[in-house]
Amino acid sequence: MAARGCGGVWCRVLQRGPGGSCSASRPRRAVACNARGGAVPLGQSGLAPWAAVVGLEIHAQITSNSKLFSGSQVQFAAPPNSLVSFFDASLPGTLPVLNRRCVEATVMTGLALNCTINKKSLFDRKHYFYADLPAGYQITQQRVPIAVNGSLSYSLCKDNKMSQMVTKTVRIKQIQLEQDSGKSLHDDARSQTLIDLNRAEGQLRVDANISVHHPGEPYGVRTEVKNINSIRFLAKAVDYEIQRQIKELENGGTVLNETRAFDSKLGCTVPMRDKEGKQDYRFMPEPNLPPLILYDAKSLPANVNHQQVVNIDWIHERLPDLPSVKRAKLVELYGILPEHSFTLVNEDGLMDFFEDVVKQTQMKPKKVIGWILSDLLSHLKQHSLTAKESPISSFLLADLLNLLENGDISSSAAKQVFEELWKGEGKTPLEIVKEKQLELIQDQEELEQICQAVIDEREKEVMAIKGGNEKVINKLIGLVRKATRGRANPLLVKQILEKKLSE
Amino acid sequence: MLKGYISPYNATVVQKLLDGGAVLLGKTNLDEFAMGSGSTDGVFGPVRNPWSYSRQYKEKIVPRSDSEPENSNWVITGGSSGGSAAAVSAFTCFAALGSDTGGSTRNPAAHCGVVGLKPTYGLISRHGLIPLVNSMDVPGILTRCVDDAAVVLGSLAGHDPKDSTTVQDIFQPFALPSLTDVSKLSIGIPKEYHAPGLSSEILAVWSKAADLFKNAGAKVVEVSLPHTHYSIVCYHVLCTAEVASNMARFDGLEYGHRSDMNKSTESMYAATRREGFSDVVRGRILSGNYFLLKQNYEDYFVKAQKVRRLIANDFVKVFGSGVDILLTPTTLSDAVPYVEFIKEDNRTRSTQDDILTQAANMAGLPAVNVPTALSGRGLPIGLQFIGRSFQEKQLLTVAKWFEKQEMKYLLCIQILQISGYTHHQKDEFQTSSGERC
């Protein structure tokens, strides 16, 4: 079966009161932060405040060449049942053999999430009958997983403002290795289900566990919500379920310990059928896999074959920079804003693009970033492209920015050139500038003439400016720009106009 | 359940034999899924012990009544690898493979008068062995003499990357030395193996064997394995739990028997398993699932694992006190007639018959049955040697020495008189090591 790492994440969404101590005489408005950091009233006003507890179970498929316990290959979109070994088909007499790369991947993930890596971890069997589980059990790590007690810091924008970022921490309960199931394809027309034993769908799957309680009281009964297919739906499902539970409890009802499915069309959770009572998985140690022993530099025995052991310290040394470190470096090195570093790191390939441009241009990184984050990124998003697929290479963009920086063109002209470059017709920025005659007018006299012409035309505005309304000069500047088709340096124009108007 | 199923791959042990030039003569009968101690619960019917047709046995039978049909008092082979033991005993092949989880190789070896070796757990690959109890199963070796067993062991033992429970150490095949001086040997006689139900005949043979060692200069001491009497119950819990787990894959979906019931996946599973499994198997699955329930897990499964540790420690202590090999009976009696055997159910029989053999599986130790004598009814009696982990060489060396002693020699001559083979045909039955059996 394909490899799968599974992490448990617990976060508390706390309610925020209006501040100060709790006073019984004053009705308190119970509020909480939603995923976007905005205040959301929990429950009806005047009633006791609620706190929600959310736990996420995340299934992430490990990128490896072969599956976790069998030697069969892993390949995206292979024909159904073409990558199934004897072990995957659960033929009698076959035994699991642990994939080293999967263990390393799990250790790397554990280290990246500040977990304690268990030097000895165990494998277990979790039994249930389902068509996509040929052996009738799944090999997992229920008793002692590879990594435990980690944490992840993340930033939340308050009120949707990137400038107001709050850092929060979420606890990682554990990371365990487990077998993936097969893929089920339901054919309702013929009342049948087809099973593909290559591997399950979806590189990342999430189940959410939600409960609510009054602060100070014990945790409430939790429900599990499945069938969540995106991060956006995850937020919706969690918000909905919190509200549903609160409403239920405030109306005197109870929350059942059940599994619910998220209906993305209706935006709500519904009970899943066929769940009578809780499943007893009859956990049992997996007898065919001895305990997994991991070593570090201290405990590594001498004379051991490097190929035969996994050394935690060796993996630690080779961890790439984590995102938070990358972001901090960007801010320090280039003087960009923290919120900009997020976008750079989060968009695939964008950081490299940015750094390449910076290397090739005289323009300061603080100015370059604007071009990257607004002009380039918006175009990429519009056309669903990644930075690597950009029709404008970092070289071309650097070239363009150099023209701008040297004062050869105005910024509005540069934007026009940008649009032309985007067409990807192979022209250089200089060629486009020449073709469209976008060079800044360097001739002072010519500029003065144009400015004078505008002043002569716009008596009303001139009167307003002379009367003290200074902002109106921007309108004149705009008119000059129009007249020059963007070829006038706005600062220079302003200077000339001001000089003329003060005469 | 696996009727008509042809495995698309060879087990490692089979492949090793084929690679070594062995000729596969056939597959043998057994108790279904290796559950049983008589080889009577197989889909193809019960296995008949070749000794049922030997002159020794026939001479001793007292016909019960005239109305009884001729062949109604044939005896069982023991089990569960009875077919393999019978094949070797009847001279149809040089050696046969079996499995040993609670004695399934040694038990039929004793009843059929052949050598049955249970190797140390982790020495021989289980890849391709349909598991009964993964933590106790080993492939078993059945041959007519100890030297042959050593030869087969030499070609099978060693690390297999496909089986993560095999040890990494490199295995060196060995030839067995011919021991002449046993004065440095210490033989332990565990008193708990004087079990209730042990026939007086076997007790006498056991005693005589101990004396044989003593008279030859070896140190023979009584030892104690105090947790022996817990082993059957412990075994039942662990065995049924693993069985329940291992049998979960037989659902008719990927291979094997599939029921015609197709109203829903679940009903198909249920019908397939009801049709495909015998009562014995289903009984064990139900018990096993019971023990694995969350509310029972601590009280049964975990407790049994703890008891298992105690049983294993008994052996560690004894071997640590200077004892080299343990000598015990293999079975409680000689082979019983089939009509007697089936009067009790499989579970009861297994409980009774496994008692002398399955502690070695609990502890993962190597053990071997050596045919020793004939009973008053003309049927084989064997004795068991249990050795230290991975000390097969020492174990088999001692076994070979014992084999050569007078007791065994008596047995040998009589084997050649099965079904009227006469004295002058003795020369044909030479073993691979060239020694006359």
From TrEMBL, chain A:
GO cellular-component term (any): mitochondrion
Listed Pfam families: GatB_N, GatB_Yqey
Subcellular location: Mitochondrion
MF GO annotations: ATP binding; glutaminyl-tRNA synthase (glutamine-hydrolyzing) activity
Catalysed transformations (reactions): L-glutamyl-tRNA(Gln) + L-glutamine + ATP + H2O = L-glutaminyl-tRNA(Gln) + L-glutamate + ADP + phosphate + H(+); L-aspartyl-tRNA(Asn) + L-glutamine + ATP + H2O = L-asparaginyl-tRNA(Asn) + L-glutamate + ADP + phosphate + 2 H(+)
Enzyme kind, highest EC tier: ligase
UniProt GO BP: glutaminyl-tRNAGln biosynthesis via transamidation; mitochondrial translation
Gene3D superfamilies: 1.10.10.410
InterPro entries: Asn/Gln-tRNA_amidoTrfase_suB/E (IPR017959), Asn/Gln-tRNA_Trfase_suB/E_cat (IPR006075), Asn/Gln_amidotransferase (IPR018027), Asn/Gln_tRNA_amidoTrase-B-like (IPR003789), GatB (IPR004413), GatB_Yqey_C_2 (IPR023168), Gln_synth/guanido_kin_cat_dom (IPR014746)
Asn/Gln amidotransferase domain location: 352-501
Keyword terms, alphabetized: ATP-binding, Ligase, Mitochondrion, Nucleotide-binding, Protein biosynthesis
Enzyme Commission code(s) on record: 6.3.5.-
Family: Belongs to the GatB/GatE family. GatB subfamily.
Subunit structure: Subunit of the heterotrimeric GatCAB amidotransferase (AdT) complex, composed of A (QRSL1), B (GATB) and C (GATC) subunits.
Function: Allows the formation of correctly charged Gln-tRNA(Gln) through the transamidation of misacylated Glu-tRNA(Gln) in the mitochondria. The reaction takes place in the presence of glutamine and ATP through an activated gamma-phospho-Glu-tRNA(Gln).
Protein name in the entry: Glutamyl-tRNA(Gln) amidotransferase subunit B, mitochondrial
Annotated source species: Meleagris gallopavo
Species lineage: Eukaryota, Metazoa, Chordata, Craniata, Vertebrata
Automatic annotation (TrEMBL), chain B:
Active-site residues annotated for this sequence: S80, S104
Subcellular location: Mitochondrion
Keyword Nuclease: no
Gene Ontology molecular function, alphabetical: ATP binding; glutaminyl-tRNA synthase (glutamine-hydrolyzing) activity
Pfam families reported for this sequence: Amidase (PF01425)
One cellular component term from this protein's GO annotations in UniProt: glutamyl-tRNA(Gln) amidotransferase complex
Domain Amidase: 1-55, 71-396
Domain of life: Eukaryota
Keywords recorded for this protein, A-Z: ATP-binding, Ligase, Mitochondrion, Nucleotide-binding, Protein biosynthesis
Reaction(s) catalysed (UniProt annotation): L-glutamyl-tRNA(Gln) + L-glutamine + ATP + H2O = L-glutaminyl-tRNA(Gln) + L-glutamate + ADP + phosphate + H(+)
This protein's record includes keyword Ligase: yes
GO BP annotation list: glutaminyl-tRNAGln biosynthesis via transamidation; mitochondrial translation
Family the entry assigns: Belongs to the amidase family. GatA subfamily.
Role of this protein: Allows the formation of correctly charged Gln-tRNA(Gln) through the transamidation of misacylated Glu-tRNA(Gln) in the mitochondria. The reaction takes place in the presence of glutamine and ATP through an activated gamma-phospho-Glu-tRNA(Gln).
HAMAP family registered for this protein in UniProt: GatA
Subunit structure: Subunit of the heterotrimeric GatCAB amidotransferase (AdT) complex, composed of A (QRSL1), B (GATB) and C (GATC) subunits.
The protein, known as: Glutamyl-tRNA(Gln) amidotransferase subunit A, mitochondrial
Organism of provenance: Meleagris gallopavo
